[in-house]
Design brief:
Blueprint: E1 4-7, H1 21-31, H2 35-50, H3 61-76, H4 82-95, H5 104-110, E2 114-119, H6 123-132, E3 139-142, H7 143-146, H8 153-163, E4 170-174, H9 177-187, E5 190-194, E6 206-207, H10 214-217
């Protein structure tokens, strides 16, 4: 019997599709290049520095953002400090909005299920983001707090200990196959992929809205 659900945060509950556009606009105003071109540049630089970061020894995401903006600062001759651009990025994280179907978390709570949020993110923006975007949950686990990243099985073990449930009593929902789904599968919990962005990935337990979760609960 399912007694709890573990959710990834960004890309699962909170829409991060335009994460880089605000900082691209800030830099565009500073140096005069088109924001859409800068957004693409920032994404490519992000992918370079964040590639497989979750498989490396833990360090806060801010350290990776320092690498990202240091490269952008040198390549684009940016005038402000690296910390300035990181802080602006973190403001964007805080301002991101939840998906409309997050309302179904209220029904999940009404049914008596526990809700945990498990995120590979820094507390610096996760905590104010959750204060601003109010939806029900019982416990928040971040990589920043545990010094562990998904898909490390130890972070799943830590989460289950906190919500006091066993593997057979929970399901895990995430949008990233390599980090979320493989992490959950390898740990031994039912893992469901939510596709917020179209892709060719075929995975049997795939949903497109949180409303579809209820078929796994009952």
């Amino acid at each position: 019997m399912i007694k709890g659900i573990i959710f990834d945060l960004y890309g699962t509950l909170i829409n991060a599709n335009q994460l880089f556009l605000p900082i691209a606009k800030i830099i565009s105003n500073e140096i005069g290049q088109p924001a859409d071109i800068l957004e693409k540049n920032i994404k490519e630089t992000y992918n370079k520095h964040f590639k497989d970061y979750h498989l490396k020894p833990f360090k806060p995401e801010r350290e990776y953002y320092k690498l990202l903006f240091n490269e952008l600062k040198e390549n684009l001759n940016l005038k402000n400090s690296i910390d300035y651009y990181i802080d602006e990025m973190y403001k964007t994280f805080i301002d991101l909005k939840p998906y409309d179907d997050v309302e179904h978390l209220n029904t999940i709570k009404e049914k008596g299920l526990k809700i945990a949020i498990l995120s590979n993110a820094d507390n610096d923006f996760v905590l104010p983001s959750l204060e601003k975007n109010i939806f029900p949950f019982d416990i928040l686990i971040t990589s920043h707090s545990t010094k562990l990243y998904k898909p490390d099985p130890k972070i799943f073990d830590y989460t289950l200990n906190k919500i006091k449930l066993n593997k057979e009593e929970v399901i895990f929902i995430g949008d990233n196959y390599n980090v979320d789904i493989l992490g959950g599968i390898n740990y031994g919990i039912k893992s469901i992929l939510i596709k917020r962005i179209p892709s060719n990935l075929n995975y049997p337990d795939t949903i497109y809205s949180l409303k579809e979760l209820f078929k796994y609960i009952y």
